[in-house]
Design a protein that fits this description.
alpha+beta; about 40% helix; binds iron/sulfur cluster
Amino acid sequence: MSIIEVVEELSDVYGVADFSVDEEKLVQMYGEDICKYPYAIAIGHKMLEEIIEKIPLTYSNDDYAQEYLDEYYNSHARVSEIAKKIVERIEQEGYHAIELDVSGDNPKLNLKMPFSNKASANLAGIGWLGKNNLLTTKEFGPRLTWATVLTDAPLGEYAGRPMESLCGDCDICVKACPGKAIVDLPNPKESYSPKKCGEFLMGRKKDGHPVACGMCLYICPFGNEKSKEILQRK
Ligand code: SF4
Ligand code: SF4
């Protein structure tokens, strides 16, 4: 199996970004090490559907809320393992590779700040940052966890280009967010307030509930058929 076939087999969604195209900007933000290798493989791993589908019930059922919280972290561990396997496979082919886990870091790299895995997925052309600030794909919406593998394996022929937002005039996550942390603006830096989201979660904690929400992940019509119908009726 070729490297890219292994990536395809292990990931639910994947893409390749050619970092040399955006090198100046990336180095400015993250430091030289982010472009140590020319390509980034963005690896998307699906969170468990049956748990995501129960998110609307988590506000009145702490067991479901805890289950979602556990899946959030378990999916992080799973995608890190996938990234490690891909690194091993690339090294077997005689190339270099290093994985960035969900936190966007690796102790072997000297980064100015943790890398955003959302950025590699966006640069690879497999998703966009929605108004909810989640990396959103056409196929599974934001119901994915991400890791990145940086490599010098020759993957240039698979490299995509940055994807434009497909949110358009959808405001479903804006209306559904219980923390009023999302407003209807196209730029996620302006539409999503981490402060308000954090305040909502801390309020839940203060009231004795698991620190879980995820409504914006559940409700997005990309990945949620019921929401898609609502959007299509608009
Ligand atoms: S996690 Fe909840 S509170 Fe935070 S932005 Fe998403 S829907 Fe809103
Ligand atoms: S719910 Fe609509 S506005 Fe929000 S991220 Fe998804 S497509 Fe974009």
